[in-house]
Structure formats: structure tokens, C-alpha cells
Amino acid sequence: MENKPTLKQNNGGTQLLLQFLKGSKLYFVLSIICSAMTTLIDMINPQIIRGTIDNAIGGKESGFPVWVNDIVESLGGFRYIGEHLWIPAIAIAVFGLFRVGFQFATTILNTTGSEILVKNMRDTLFSHISRLPYSWHMTNSTGDIIQRCTTDVDRMRTFVAEQLTSVFRILILVAMSMYFMFSMNVKMALIATAPIPVILAYSVIFRKDMHEGFKVCDENEGKVSDIIQENLTGVRVVRAFANERQEVERFGKANEYYCSLWVHMGKVIGKFFSIQDILCGMQILLVTVFGAVFAVKGQMTAGEYVAFVSYNGMLSFPIRRLGRMLSEMAKAGVSLNRLQYIMDSEEEEDRPGAVDADMTGDIKFEDITFCYEEGHDVLKDINIDVPAGSTLGILGGTGSGKSTLMLLLDKLYEIPEGHGRITIGGVDIRDIRNQHLRKNIAMVLQEPYMFSRSLKDNIGITREHLQLEDIQMAADAACLTEAIEGFTEGYDTFVGERGVTLSGGQKQRAAIARALTQDAPIMIFDDSFSAIDNQTDAAIRESLEKRFGTATIIIISHRITTLSRADQVVVLDGGRIIEHGTPEELRQAGGMYQKIYEIQLGIRGEEVRADG
Ligand SMILES: Nc1ncnc2c1ncn2[C@@H]1O[C@H](COP(=O)(O)OP(=O)(O)OP(=O)(O)O)[C@@H](O)[C@H]1O
Ligand SMILES: [Mg+2]
């Protein structure tokens, strides 16, 4: 987590939000319109009540606009309505029915819109993440990425569906309430609106505190998710070292800290809402008391007073809600920043003019120097020529740079300009399309990974529509058939997290079979025979030679017998090539290869490992 890049500021947040809103915008716009309609109906009812009290029952002069009077006249006039009070009652009921309809439509449209929004967000994020460079995945923790794609996505949904759409409703509510209040009694309207700027200013000031608080909470939720994810993935290590207590303590501490942050946020939010409630309460008190005084003094009619109190109640709803909106907005702002961090990370791209070069040519490593961190060279001056169709063996101690060299060949890490190059058939791999390069290099990684799928799907993952015969052939070449026959469900056996756990050797063989299905002209085996016994190791290599004789093969191994049939072997030490030759030459060169050879054959007794 320490070396994780810090969150970028939300400079293009709106643009990202619009990108996410693609496909759901129309639903939200319609939902806003329907919601605005319910608000309009809410606005009409107090006017019906006012007219009924003042004009229909009270017999006062109408203060309504001409078009309202026209409607009243068409219904028989105020006096007639006063004698038939069921008319306003029916009007209120009809408007109520319309309100229910609009409310229903708002809910449906909003739900549909938010589901499309969430789907779009997840799809966009997943597809972007899958195109991010390998190095990005190595520097960002899985737990935190998952948290961003779940909790943060959900927060954005809540914000858009619940807050953003209600902004418009609230704006209409405020504008209409103000309009009616000012049109009925300017003095009273001024009294009602005077405290509002104070309440608004107070909310805006508080928003900053909340934003910071939510940011810290989110970051710590990421840390808690990380511990859970690591413990689930690394359950074997935890159990094997009886580390449960320490891990539970570690989790407990992170969890406690995370909870304490939310308790603190609870206090901050609680304080905010309480003070805001007091301010709103005072505003309502002002309107009620002054309204009553004005009504008693005759400066306001009873109907106006009732309508005024209704509008003020409606006005205080958005003001109270403002606090919640700002708090949700602060949360959503943090979440949008966190999603933007992912979306701002640059996808892996081919160089302009990258080609699908012929991959059956010679592979040349030319003057390669590489480091992960400035100043710590992992590979230095690497020069190797691997003729097409030949086998290169690589021997070297732990951390000597063997896997790194293969990651460079697969362009999982880029060699910076001026630090040498790798060519295949004379073409710099920088100029080869990534997908083309990787489709033509079958790599068995040092730590094979099995997906929670059937064995068949795990092996056949390299190509679409692979026939079972191809999978069986690959499994056969990797000496896995016997093991598969041992499983009751054969190739349909579920492996990985939710299925049968393969042994280390079975996993390695399944990974080898997987690479073989790729039928690539270049094959890399990174310590892929370490968990396989000598006999099987020899059998696999033999079948490889038979079936894939034309491929260029690179084998990394600590076992001399595995390398004995290679055309050439390089010995790496501290990132440099210290020996280079055919296995026969190196056996008598008096170097590390010879030492290891003699020990592994039992000629020497002393303990010498590949790492010296
Ligand atoms: N992603 C990374 N970031 C920083 N350093 C790394 C990274 N991957 C490997 N290293 C460092 O680079 C060096 C070479 O690692 P590499 O995995 O290439 O060694 P190796 O020869 O394959 O070792 P082994 O035989 O144990 O597999 C090591 O010191 C390792 O700590
Ligand atoms: Mg390695």
C-alpha cells in the first residue's frame, strides 16, 4: 500500500461521471421530469386549500390570477364551490392520484437508470483494468481495487439515483415555494428566507470536513479489505505457520481503527445535523409565530397563513436534506476520485505502426539492463542469441533475474529506451503488437494459477473453441492424463478455490498443458518442473521434443538434468551472465554449473545450491 500512487484530484470527475452515465441518462432525465411533476402537484394542493378557506368558505375577494378565476368560474364560482365542498376534495384526490402515478414512474425509471449505470460502471472499469499494464497490477493491491469496484461504484449509484436526481426536484420545490410565498406576502416571505443563507453557509463549511473524513474512511476500508483478501488467498501460509492469532490481531487493529474513524464521522455528522435541525427549527418557529401575529393583525388571511406554513414546511425539507446531500456528495466525490484513479491509469498500448512480426525467427537479447527501482539493476549487460528452434537453458540463484528476463521477453515489463532490446526474427519486440507477441509465446509461469473452473477450461484457456482432443493431447504431453483419469469427473473436475485442490506437481503439469495448447513457436518454462519428479520431468521434455520440435524453447531450472539437453545454457548471478556455453562445455568449465552438476549427480558431497 505504501508505494501506491496517491489519489489524483478530481479534475475531470464530471467527464468521467458523464461517461459512466452513457445509456442511463435518458432514464434519469425522465425520472427527474416525473419527480418534478409530483413536486408541482405538491405545490397546487395548498393553493386549493387556501382558495377553499378564504374565498369559497370565507367569501373574500379572489387574489388568484385570471386564469385560475376562469377555471373556478367554469366550475360554478367560489360561492358554488363553498356550498359544494366535495369539489375541492375531489380535486385534491385527483391530483393525489396523478401524484401517485408520477411517483411510481419516478421509482421505476430511477431503478432502471441506476442498474444501467452500475452495469456500465462495472463493465467500463473491468475492461479498463484488464487492459492496464502488468506492472500496474503489481503495484496496486487487489483488495483495494476490488473495494473501488464495489463500494465506490455503489456509492456513485446511490449519489446519482438518490441525490443528483432530487437536486432538480428540490430546485423546483424551492423556486415554486418562494414564488408562492413572495406572491402571497412579501414581508413574511423575507422573514422565512432570511435564515436560509446562514443554514447554507454552515452546510458548505461543514462539507469540507466531511469530505476529508470520508476519504480517510475509504482508504482504511481498502486496508481492511486487503487484509481479508490476503488472508483468504494466503490461507495456506497462515495455517502452515500457525499465524492465525497474529493475523486476527492485525485484522482486529485495522478493523478497530476503521470503526473508530466511522464513530468519529458519526459524531461529526451528528453534530452537523443537530445544529442544522436547530437552525431549521428556528426558521419554522419564526414563520409560525410571525405568520400568526400577521394573521391576527389582519395583514394576512387565514387561508394564506395555512398555505404559507405548508410552503415553509416544503422549503425546510430541502434545507434539512441539504446536509444529507452534502454528506452524500462528499462521499461520492471521494468515490469518484478513487474510480478516476483507476480510469486515469494508462492502458497498455502498442507502439504506432506495431506489426504482427514472424515469430519463428531467432531471439536476441541485446545489451539488456533493467531495474524495477531506480539504482537497483536486476539485469546487467545481458546478451544472448537463441537461434530459431533451439533450446536455451537458464540456471541461476534465487533473485538472479531469470523470471524478470522472461517477463521482458513477454513485454509484461517494458525495457526503457537506451537499455538494450530484444529482437525476434530481427524485429524489436517494442515494434511487435502485444497481443500477437503474447499469443505466440507460451509461457508457463513460475507460480501457476488455476481459475475456479473445470480442468478442461483451465487448460484450454489459451484459445477460443479448443477441441477436447487438443486439450487431451496437451495433457498427455504434460504427463497429466493419469492424474486426470484419477478424478471422478475427469476433465470436468472443478479445480481452484471452489473445487479440487491440485497438488503442486499436478498444478505445474496443468500449467504446462495449458501452455502447450497455445501451440506457439516460442515456449518458456519458468522453473516449471521443480515440483515434478525426475522421471516425469524427463518424460515431459521428451514428448515436448517430439511434438514441438520446431519451437524455440527457453527453460529455467535449478535442476541440471532438466537443462542437459539444451543447445546452450546461460548461468545468471546477480543479474549478470557469469557462464555461457553448451551443457557439455559448462560441465567442465569449473564454474557454478559444474559444481551444481557434480553435487546433483552425487560426485561432490558439499552443499552447493544454484544461488552459490
Ligand atoms: N515487481 C517487482 N518489483 C520490484 N522488484 C522485483 C519485482 N520482481 C522481482 N523483483 C526483484 O528482482 C530481482 C530478480 O527477480 P526474479 O524474479 O527475476 O528472480 P529469479 O531469478 O526468477 O529468482 P527465482 O529463482 O527465485 O525465481 C529480485 O531481487 C527481486 O526481488
Ligand atoms: Mg523466478
Strands across the major sheet, in which order?
6-7-8-3-9-10
What percent strand? Answer: 5-15%
Q: What is the count of structural domains?
A: 3
CATH superfamily annotation of the largest domain: ABC transporter type 1, transmembrane domain
CATH architecture of the largest domain: Up-down Bundle
Distinct compounds present: adenosine-5'-triphosphate, magnesium ion
Structural class: alpha/beta
Q: State the end-to-end CA separation.
A: 33 Å
Total helices: the number is 22
Largest sheet features: 6 strands, mixed
Average pLDDT reading: 87
Poorly predicted runs of 5 or more residues = 1-10, 607-612
Looking at the structure, what is the overall shape?
Answer: elongated
User: For this structure, what is the CATH class of the largest domain?
Assistant: Mainly Alpha
Q: Helical proportion? A: 55-70%
The gyration radius over C-alpha positions equals: 36 Å
